[in-house]
Amino acid sequence: MAADAETLTLSSDEVMGRAAAWRDAGKDVAIATVVNTWGSSPRPVGSQLAVSAAQEMIGSVSGGCIEGAVVAEAQEVIRSGAPRLLEFGVADEDAWAVGLACGGRVEVFVERLD
Amino acid sequence: MDRILIDRLAAARKEHRPVVVATDLASGEKSWIEGGSAAGPVRIDETALAAAHAAQRDDRSRTIETGDGRRLFLHVFNPPLRLLVVGAVHIAQSLAPIASIAGYAVTVIDPRGSFATSDRFPGVAMTDDWPDEALASLKPDARTAIVTLTHDPKLDDPALHSALRSDCFYIGSLGSRRTHASRVERLKQAGFDAAQIARIRGPIGLDIGASSPAEIALAIMGEITATLRRPPAKAA
């Protein structure tokens, strides 16, 4: 899931504006925000990704390496309403683990838009 | 996150009001921090308030741990940086693109029609209003720098009066020490006190031996950057 250049440069107000428009159209929406980074990370703290229950997405929290996992967690957050704090580190040898190729570590907070 | 928060943030951005939203990373609850005080369910103590202020100044969101072990995400929503340049002079032709690259939205103000032309300032926002009227409509805020470059008191002084009444983070005025001394006298007579007048950087710019217009523009941009990024005590 590669994030294109336009998606990467979207500012928080553009991402949240779209999230609000989805919500106003009656869709369930979650917002993911990078709240901490260690080492090299593709997107700075404060970067946001909005996800709808229909798996639409706008914005980014990485260069595309963890978006898939965040979208999946976001569906759980939309269902339960309980926020989640996710941590992603460097990809390890477990082929199923999601990680950052750049070797950094990020914390992503996912919450439902009510 | 409450849907209404997005509308409040959009309104703050439109009105150029800097805001920090603090999120408790355990509960998801949020408090709104603006103008040195906090409102909302997340308790913000003095330390957290100071951290929010620092985050705002650095324009970098961050997660902090409070004294009682809570983790708070401080999300900075700063209005865009702006530079208002009074005087569409040679230095302004260098300063506008340098500031633009540094992330500032630049507006050049000059009521003298032959100066502020689009071929001298390609792609730069311009107004030919008188400086005091232009500043009244542009509403400088804490993310705005104001520079006067005309050497002409008829143009510079009204701009400085408006700048001194605003929250702008930087005021610089071109002119020699002698020019600046007479400017200070005029401002005193206009009713501004010494502390207010001390906000004006004059002679303008960092002391890097700048001589050409482009070098002077660099010195000005360096001083604006230092004022924006360094804690107040070290800015001079």
Write the layout of secondary structure elements.
The complex is a heterodimer of chains A (114) and B (236).
Chain A (H helix, E strand, L loop, with lengths): L4 H5 L2 H13 L4 E10 L9 E5 L4 E3 L7 H14 L3 E5 L16 E9 L1
Antiparallel strand pairs in A: 1-2, 1-5, 2-3, 4-5
Chain B lengths: L2 H12 L4 E6 L5 E5 L2 E3 L6 H13 L3 E4 L5 E7 L4 E5 L3 H12 L3 E5 L15 E3 L3 H8 L5 E5 L4 H12 L5 E4 L3 H13 L4 H4 L2 E2 L11 H17 L7
Detailed description of the structure:
The complex is a heterodimer of chains A (114) and B (236). Chain A has 114 residues and is of the alpha+beta class. Chain A has one domain (5-113). Helix content of chain A is 28%, strand content 28%. Chain A contains three helices and five strands, in the order H-H-E-E-E-H-E-E. Chain A has helices at 5-9, 12-24, 67-80, and strands at residues 29-38, 48-52, 57-59, 84-88, 105-113. Chain A has a five-stranded antiparallel beta sheet with strand order 3-2-1-5-4, with helices on both faces. The N and C termini of chain A lie far apart (27 Å). Mean pLDDT of chain A is 83; it is low at 1-6 and 92-96. Chain B has 236 residues and is of the alpha/beta class. Chain B folds into two domains: 3-77, no CATH class; 82-234, 3-Layer(aba) Sandwich (Rossmann fold), CATH 3.40.50.720. Helices cover 39% and strands 21% of the residues of chain B. Chain B is built from eight helices and eleven strands.
